[in-house]
Amino acid sequence: MIKQFLHKSFSTLLAFLVLFSTVSFTIEKHFCGDVLVDVSMFTEAEKCEMEALEIQQKKTCCKDELQVVQGQDELKFSSFDDLEFEQQQFLASFAYSYTNLFKTLEKEIIPHKDYSPPNLVTDIQVLNDTFLI
Fold first, then answer.
1. Between 65 and which of 20, 29, 83, 117 could a Cys-Cys bridge form, CB atoms 3.0 to 4.6 Å apart?
2. What is the pLDDT of residues 32-70, one digit of tens each?
3. Helices in the chain by DSSP H: which ranges?
4. Nearest-5° angle of CA 43, CA 71, CA 74?
5. How many Cβ atoms from other residues are within 10 Å of residue 38's Cβ?
6. What is the rounded CA–CA span in Å between residue 20 and residue 43?
């Protein structure tokens, strides 16, 4: 029970690790002076009201900061031909033997399956006093 729970939780953890290591996202921050006004992860950060006045006055005290978190883009794809000969030989023999593990046996024919033995009236061995010792 505990082994199955640990196995499932570890598998889930590794799946999330692979997912989050390959996902990229951007964090956008909007500052008005030195004060942080808004932080946004997937959408554009909201601007403050001072920025509308700054556009008219041509002065800028607001600034936007973008922080890009890059995921892993360089995934290595290998083929069977990239392996050495011994590794190819091992993988081929392992795959062949693994697939043969699950072959089913032929259905065994039992000719006397539906045969019902006759009713015994007397035990013949006791009647003739013949016993195997």
1. 29
2. 878 888 888 878 877 777 666 655 666 677 888 888 888
3. 2-22, 49-57, 85-100, 124-128
4. 145
5. 15
6. 19
